[in-house]
Amino acid sequence: MRTTARPGPAPTLAVERALWADGAEVVVGVDEVGRGAWAGPLTVGMAVLPRDRRVYRVRDSKALTEAERERLYSRLVNWCRAWAVGHASPAECDSLGMSAAQRLAAKRALEALGVVPDRVLVDGRWDFVTPPGVPGPAVHRIVKGDATCLSIATASVLAKVTRDRLMRAEAEHFPGYDFDLNKGYPCPRHKMALRAWGPTSIHRRSWVFMDHLVWGGRVVRPPEAE
Fold this sequence. Notes:
five-stranded mixed sheet, disordered N terminus, about 230 residues, alpha/beta, Nucleotidyltransferase, domain 5
């Protein structure tokens, strides 16, 4: 189960304002959640923020408690000019590999967004939004963008709350795995449940943890191609 850090300085609109001033009308913040989980989907969130209104106390989703994220969620969805979340299923994570699955989730989120971006702001060093060899909007990669860039932080909260709700719903179908608490991430109780009962239909069977279970070896997945 993940723990939350103490909230640091608030992310700002500095990057977005610079791009707006440069003529970019639609600036999309992007972040993913669930990449390190053993079970459940990989989720990508996208958010387009308005220029003239502000929601306060937005932070990177990891710096907020679950209750704080839930309280923010309804305010954020009503605040954003546009927002969307896309998923890649556990089976897709296994069959495609994580890089391709993350691109697929981003593609689905972009298709659901309903607007065409002029600029895209991505957390981290890797552009997982632009398909290889396909021209698209300019992508700005921002290390620690979820902590410093308001669009990315907003996308992070939207993606995290959406995925957490899915995992809480799955907990009803798989009692004993504590998906309502661990959200599919590694933790001692999750590991104990796997050893006792084996993987569920929403576990990623290509993950290395499968090697240590008596229920069979892991599925071989394709090599990463970032």
